[in-house]
Amino acid sequence: MLLKRFSIALALTMILAACGGSSAEETAAGEPATEQMDDTMSEETMDDTMSEETMDDTMSEETMDDGMSEETMDDGMSEETMEDNVSEGHMPTSFTVTIQNTSDSAVLPTPLAPGVFVIHGAPEVIFTAGEVDRGAGLEELAEDGDPSGLVTSLATVSTVSATGSFAVPDGAAEAGPALPGSSYSFSFEATPGEYLSFATMFVQSNDWFFAPAASGIGLFDGDAPLEGDITELVLLWDAGTEVDETPGEGPNQAPRQAGPDTGDAQDAPIAGVVGFAGSIAVSLTVSG
User: Fold this and answer.
1) By residue range, what is the domain housing residue 27?
2) Is 28 a residue whose pLDDT tops 60?
3) Fewest CB within 10 angstroms: 41, 63, 67, 237, which?
């Protein structure tokens, strides 16, 4: 019984010490251990208020060392919340993406148009494969190489942490298309749990665009940032907003059309396009 009372006294002492109370300081000095507890709380009351079983549930020896029991952590902070908080505690990693136009050695040389990039925490922020375009700016990008509307709409999405456009080819002085052999680059910061998406027009088409899968590209494997050649993660898509003509020949394609949005409108699901491999090369560099 004496051992039990001593254990309870020790537990209460540590609780009071953690709360900054004056009684904790007195107890730590060695003055009121058993005698003071007898005066303020009878053994029976202590048994009723804090049984040995309650102590085991509330504050185990391991819990006293750690300051928070496993049960308390489960109640107060879910595993998902802890992961989010850990992610928030990371210093952002700086990335640079380079999109190289390699179509001079592909089946159909084509310019690439200015595009959009977005860093996000949930999938499908630009489009959903198999569904029609949302009317949030992708049509203007895919048909006419204009990313401005899509950037504006993405900036309002709650799961988006950063978005912007890339329009000036590397080494150029002003915005314009990236011709075969040239490239676009853009930089951003991200933390674990975030994804990269981007889109740029395949200019010799009515409404095709290069982009990763709708879910985006995961930028981290655990805490390790993704780096290197990510070309295999980039696909060619048909936005389904304009009737397709023969690539490189259609009169309503950007190089030959009289003005923006001149082709026959369509309302088809967004789908992948095959047959134009080698038109693009994409690399991801960690710079900090």
Assistant:
1) 2-76
2) no
3) 67
